Amino acid sequence: xxxxxxxxxxxLDQLPxxxxxxxxxxxxxxxxxxxxxxxxxxxxxRHGVEVGDLYLDYSxxxxxxxxxxLLRDLAEAVDVAGLRDAMxxxxxxxxxxxxxxxxTALRAPxxxxxxVDGEDVVPGVHSxxxxxxxxxxxxxxxxxxxxxxxxxxxxxxxxxxxxxxGPAMAYEALRPYAQRDLDVRxxxxxxxxxxxxxxxxLDPERTLFIVASKTFTTQETLTNARVAKAWLLDCLGAEESxxxxxxxxxxxNTAEVSAFGIDPEHMFEFWDWVGxxxxxxxxxxxSLMIAIGPVRFREMLDGFRLVDEHFRTAxxxxxxxxxxxxxxxxxxxxxxxxxxxxxxxxHYLAKFPAYLQQLDMESNGKSVDRDGEPVRxxxxxxxxxxxxxxxxxxxxxxxxxxxxxxxxxxxxxxRPIGELGVLAEQxxxxxxxxxxxxxxxxxxxxxxxxxxxxxxxxxxxxRCFEGDRPSSTLLASELSPSVLGQLVALYEHKVFVQxxxxxxxxxxxxxxxxGKVLAKRVEPTxxxxxxxxxLDASTATLVDRYRRLRGR
Length: 552
Ligand code: F6P
Known about the structure:
alpha/beta, 5-stranded parallel sheet, globular, binds 6-O-phosphono-beta-D-fructofuranose
């Protein structure tokens, strides 16, 4: 019997295309990568896609031509392309919040028209970019002076989630392009230690705070911003008016920005059709723009746009985000892969996995479909990773010989950055490790190979590598602003494809609300003598112990 959901849509797992994939998975059994490569000398070449400066090698996946065809059939059956086009047109595809999803408009050229509710949003995007550019140039040139007339030398971005992870990741990634005499710091955690460490050696006269919050109601950000303001006024011995030279805001909420004491003149706007985790190429990227300059920032936007166009127009079989998304669907649906590792072989991309955690897990960590029905299939994986080669000496053991299948993305760059000097000689070693890991994961080492090395019989099993651990390799020329934009857009659209197939709303985040509400309820119970009535027994016991430890 075929099940339809409340909207009359055939459930994903009831679609003939899904069933065909399930049957195909059974037939494939444990067909391995050695076999697939041996049987097809062209496999590596055919399973490669070029997008701008990126090259995606997806040959080391547990797929045949048939698998890929069936995955494409599935994408067609659920109309991924239709939803994609609706997103680009500005339709309100964020159904639970009734919002358009238009991060792609943030990188649209000036002459394109994209309408939301009958209004072209592109002029607004460029007007904010122009204001950001003028401001960034002034700060970079030392022309933006603080209250006492000294030029700003440190920028502290206060934000959390999408208002922190994107700019922090990109600042780290593009450090070689940053104006090195400007220090940019990021404070996100409501743990006072974060702000303390950021401020302890700062000169308030030369410090600018960017309070970045889409809603301007986020507890962590407003708490940190309030303390930073008090610190500044206290250190300067100044009146509230000093705030004007030391605080700017990035938000969609003018009223709350004013209420905080920041003049809306010093606010850089964005819009509710930009999701927090899709926002670092909006004004949320102001700290980054100050660091790398408006020209580089726009190069990054061009990189985003290049992949947007590819995603919008390339046929599925050559469409990198489509392929990456569908491969993830394959492993989640038919291999029970619980996690996905992102392993950048670039120290500059150290924060990229953390950035992707929000992008992917806040988007696709859902268990109710877009029509309000519980899903009966696996949705978003746990995304994790750290830069190679560090991880190799920590958790790669499990990737190679553990009992979990962990599909991985290995990301590397052909050229090291120019300023490394003699240290650039280490680059081949870094990249040799990347290539070797993909090889080892895919092809492993058989018992015969181990024995041939003279390994004692009792150790042979321990020294074997099963192989067939799938990975994609993303190789690019160098980590430039444009390439970073390309990379981020690639993952944004990959996440989109998966959400579209799983029929979930990738653009809401209701799952973060309960914790926020409960924290507000718990906080008053931490005071001396406060009642813990209404707390569950476990929490009440913990609160009680906490209070005793705090001497309350
Ligand atoms: O709590 C989750 C979240 O809403 C994220 O989606 C968002 O990026 C983050 O909080 C920060 O929100 P804001 O920019 O409104 O402070």
